[in-house]
Write a structure and sequence with these properties.
Elements: H1 37-46, H2 53-65, E1 69-73, H3 76-86, E2 94-97, H4 103-111, E3 115-118, H5 130-133, E4 141-147, H6 156-166, E5 169-173, E6 181-182, E7 185-186, E8 194-197, E9 210-214, H7 217-228, E10 232-235, E11 239-242, H8 253-285, E12 290-292, E13 299-301, E14 306-311, H9 320-330, E15 336-337, H10 343-346, H11 348-355, H12 378-386, E16 387-391, H13 399-415
Parallel strand pairs: 2-3, 2-4, 4-5, 5-8
Antiparallel strand pairs: 1-9, 6-7, 6-13, 8-9, 10-11, 12-14, 14-16, 15-16
Helix pairs in contact: 1-8, 2-8, 3-4, 3-7, 8-13, 9-13
């Protein structure tokens, strides 16, 4: 008898994900906190909620990235959702999206009745590229949403060129790449807008939180109207008129305070992570049968939130799932496969809606039939079948932790050679 929905295990987030795990390597929790986090939270309390802490955070983050606007939100999913809601697209319009990502990337698209179209990845990479995107562009395509998975960048210059060629809005999901740099330019500033995550497990970890950054004045104002003001305008002698469907996706004051404090230590942390993940990549690459994630030359600062490696299936007598289990048992906490990151396979509701031709997959507003499964993106599916990841290589790592991790992987590899 199938398990009822009431008894199915729910997904966990933040510190709960690693609760009870034991290993030989550091994990992000308890988090290192910026020295002024407590002071900023106390300001909120002492002011009786009259201090504009969200505004202070927005101003500081915009200045840090060198952009005109930052719109604070309660998390990364709401950040991308208010951006989707701010678009003037029509139901049934298509957004091309990276296939290896988290549900939060596409939630806003689905809520606005846009149709996500998943581009395949480059071989050996978790990211899509201009060459995998271009064949999917149709007369209904309106935007390209690039995800910098694990903190590795999509190659943005060719993607932006493609966007200009087809008059498409290009934007970034930078939730795993905060303060990373592509050819010296900061994540989130590489296209027309960028969405960030400050959830507690992320590199710039707060209690939760997120934001959108952009240089587009009109877009920024529309996001504030839709995402902060709930689509409401004031009418004299009446009050609020909700002229559009909107949301109350404002960053809480204490979240803004903590995030502001965490910003003060992020540069040093990311520089440290960049150095350590490159060292770990080198060590893993020396193990026969182990294929670390390649770090392209255009990644000038690798703000790695997640790390991992692939195995050569022909080199071992166990599959990737068993290999990962042995690595976890050997002392690397949180090790496992990430097959659930393949959105066309993980989002079964998309499969059901499209198969049943439910709105917006009915015609109209859709202009053609859609099908969702792992087979939509065979290169991405093949990559995830042998990719073993752990979260995360955090700022607590030291060179000896990288060496220990490599030793653990080497021991498992040697034990299971074909």
């Amino acid at each position: 008898m199938p398990e009822s929905k009431d008894t199915q295990a729910r997904a966990r987030y933040g510190a709960a994900v690693i609760a009870g795990e034991r290993g030989k390597l550091p994990n992000p929790f308890p988090r290192d906190m910026g020295p002024n986090c407590g002071q900023y939270v106390q300001e909120v309390i002492d002011s009786g909620f009259t201090v504009d802490m969200m505004g202070r955070f927005e101003k500081a983050f915009a200045e840090k990235l060198g952009v005109k606007h930052c719109i604070g939100t309660p998390g990364c999913t709401p950040a991308l959702a208010i951006l989707a809601a701010a678009f003037d697209f029509e139901p049934g319009d298509e957004i091309i999206v990276s296939p290896i990502t988290d549900y939060g990337t596409i939630m806003g698209l689905c809520a606005e009745d846009y149709i996500p179209v998943f581009a395949d990845t480059e071989p050996g990479s978790p990211n899509m590229s201009a060459s995998t995107i271009e064949p999917l562009i149709t007369d209904r395509t309106r935007a390209i949403l690039c995800v910098h998975k694990t903190g590795l960048f999509c190659d943005m210059d060719p993607i932006n060129e493609l966007g200009r060629k087809h008059s498409l809005f290009v934007y970034e999901d930078t939730c795993q790449a905060v303060m990373g740099r592509y050819k010296g330019r900061l994540a989130g500033t590489l296209a027309q807008a960028g969405g960030f995550s400050f959830d507690p497990e992320k590199t710039l970890g707060s209690d939760t939180g997120g934001c959108v950054v952009t240089d587009d004045d009109e877009l920024a104002e529309r996001m504030r109207f839709i995402g902060h003001s709930r689509g409401a305008r004031m009418k004299p002698h009446f009050g609020r008129l909700h002229t559009e469907r909107g949301y109350a996706y404002r960053m809480p004051a204490c979240t803004a305070a903590i995030t502001l404090g965490q910003m003060e230590i992020i540069d040093e942390q990311v520089a440290h992570i960049d150095k350590l993940v490159r060292y770990l990549t080198q060590l893993l690459g020396d193990i026969p049968g182990i294929i670390p994630l390649a770090i392209p030359d255009y990644v000038t600062t690798y703000s790695a939130w997640m790390t991992g490696f692939s195995i050569d299936p022909a080199a071992f007598r166990v599959d990737a799932e068993e290999f990962a289990a042995q690595v976890a048992e050997g002392g690397i906490p949180g090790t496992g496969l990430g097959k659930y990151y393949l959105m066309p396979a993980a989002c079964t509701f998309l499969h059901e809606q499209s198969a049943n031709k439910e709105y917006p997959f009915s015609m109209p507003p859709a202009s053609r039939e859609y099908h969702y499964s792992g087979d939509n993106c065979p290169t991405a599916q093949e990559f995830l079948a042998t990719f073993i990841r752990w979260s995360s290589i955090c700022a607590k790592y030291q060179p000896e932790h990288c060496e220990l991790a490599a030793d653990i992987v080497r021991e498992v590899a040697d034990r299971n050679r074909a």
